[in-house]
Amino acid sequence: MAHVPAQQVLLYVATGAATGLLGAMLGLGGGVFLVPLLTLAFGIPIRAAVAASLISVIATTSASSAVNLDRGLINMRLAMALEVATTVGGLGGGLAAALFTTAQLFLIFGSTLAVMGIVMVLRSGRRNVIADLGVAPGRLGGHVQEGALTFVYRVRRLPVGLAASLVAGAISGLLGLGGGIIKVPVMNAFCGIPIRVAAATSAFMIGVTAAASVFVYYARGDMILGLCGAVAVGALPGSLLGAHLSHKVDVKALKILLAAVLIVVGARMALEAR
Amino acid sequence: VTEDVLEERIEAALKMGLALSTTLLLYGLVVGGGGPLRAGLLLLMATPVVRVIVVTAFLLLRRDWLFGLISLFVLGVLLSGVVVALGLR
Fold this sequence. Notes:
Chain A is mainly α. Chain A is 71% helix and 4% strand. Chain A has helices at residues 6-26, 31-41, 46-70, 76-96, 102-123, 158-175, 180-189, 195-219, 225-246, 252-271, and strands at 142-146, 149-153. In chain A, a hairpin with a 2-residue loop joins strand 1 (142-146) and strand 2. The model of chain A has no long low-confidence stretch (mean pLDDT 86). By secondary structure, chain B is mostly helical. Helix content of chain B is 93%, strand content 0%. At the A-B interface, helix 3, helix 4, helix 8 and helix 9 of A face helix 1, helix 2 and helix 3 of B.
């Protein structure tokens, strides 16, 4: 299983780079595009594609977190509290993956992508919720620097954040996706966390969430070593470049286009279930 | 200030895990060795676990019991995953 021909290694590195770039630009994580590409275009079994996605997610979020720690965007206490839910969901999802047939996994993956696409469309015109200013941050809250201003925020409705984290964790373990598209809007709209902190804190949790299920995938023999290694090696520079570009490019139009792509790819994956 | 120290240690753990694992993965992919590839992947998979160990140890040593225990719980879930995985082999 370890021996993958050289041309294929290059193809997988390029795939990891391209999906990592796109995922980071859109703030989605690469798995959203990686798993459909690997399964539909390259004929990789879905659980092997999910395992490769978990590996690439660990690599890319470890790199982005190192950068975000420097920028002071990660709320570590909040991450720890929510990781309680994401890791439980992740381990549960990883174990549950063995109980589903390939057809069922395609159906679940496809419908999740379609729902994500719809969420993206619905949220495209929405402004971020800015936290109330001048409140005491409490145990979980914090502050964030925007230019010359410092915003203080307090975390509200923690149970809602925990519930969203549990669902995001289950999606991670079952489908290899980070689940940021569920956590970030909930953290922002319901819990009152500034969007950049929500995104950075969510990404910080994703590596640990993936680690809850990735050993189970490894032990079950779902991992094609050459594929996972190549995808991770490509995804690292791809996602770093994507994160850099996302600050420079107006991604709103791109987001609406890709929301449509998600819905179509989701439907295509669901059709594979027949 | 204490948070800054913790952030530095986490950053160091993440960077070290990434640097070592990608070196092994590149070696495995270019030279074609299953051993380095496997080692690189396992190291990459272990990096988030090491990150949680660093946080847990730091908080418990600082007697931050609430968040220390929360972090310990997360570590417990991750290690359960490893134990379950060992049982599957």
